[in-house]
Design brief:
The protein has 201 residues and is an alpha+beta fold. The protein has a single domain, classed as Roll (Pnp Oxidase, Chain A). It contains five helices and nine strands; from the N terminus they run H-E-E-E-E-H-E-E-H-H-H-E-E-E. Strands 1, 2, 3, 4, 5, 6, 7, 8 and 9 form a nine-stranded antiparallel β-sheet that branches. Strand 8 and strand 9 form a beta hairpin. The chain starts with 12 loop residues before the first helix and ends with a strand.
């Protein structure tokens, strides 16, 4: 594997991430380059991680969507800080992103929801995410009921469903190397500028 050197990095970590992300999306051995572990601090003080999908990113940060009644959303609304971790095993690459979190606008959430497959839209109404469920039949019945309710018309975005934007303050790139002497380069935001430091593996 080619070493990861400071001189080869884009000084803008978002653009550098875009390069790695595009490569991961093209890589045959990676099924979902957009899959990432979202880590939050739960209301009881314990860290919690779960896999979610990156939906967009840019100069403002990284966006994902969820049900606001879910445990992750409740954690984020209470403690609006989070970490994202991408691991592209077959490329021996990992990206870790840390930052503050805020809600995306209603307009952005509406636009994204409208782009989802219709049955996924219905599912957003049917699932009381993270709540206890008596059995699978209960969920299937709710799904069928909402499918019937919205038959022949567009499915509106549920008021309890929307997006979060993580504004990064740290972005770390990890590149696998022999003998576990991996390359780790960390972007640290200093005002409007980024500083790159190398970490021990």
């Amino acid at each position: 594997m080619k070493p990861l050197l400071e001189r080869d990095l884009n000084p803008d970590p978002i653009r550098q991430f875009a390069t790695w992300y595009a490569a991961a999306r093209r890589h045959e051995g990676i099924l979902q380059a957009e899959a990432m572990c979202l880590s939050t601090l739960s209301p009881d003080g314990f860290p919690a991680g779960r896999m979610v999908l990156l939906k967009e990113f840019g100069s403002k940060g990284f966006v994902f969507y969820t049900n606001f009644k879910s445990s992750k959303a409740q954690s984020l609304l209470l403690y609006p800080k989070a970490a994202l971790t991408f691991f592209w095993e077959t490329m021996e690459r990992q990206v870790r992103i840390v930052g503050n979190v805020d809600l995306v606008s209603e307009e952005e959430a509406d636009a994204y929801f409208a782009s989802r497959p219709r049955l996924s839209q219905v599912g957003a109404w049917a699932s009381h995410q993270s709540e206890k469920l008596k059995n699978r039949g209960e969920l299937d019945r709710r799904f069928a009921a909402y499918k019937k309710k919205f038959a022949g018309k567009s499915v509106p975005r549920p008021p309890h469903w929307g997006g979060f934007l993580l504004d990064p303050s740290e972005i770390e790139l990890w590149q696998g190397r022999p003998n576990r002497l991996h390359d780790r380069l960390l972007y640290l935001r200093r005002g409007k500028r980024w500083k790159i430091v190398r970490l021990n593996p």
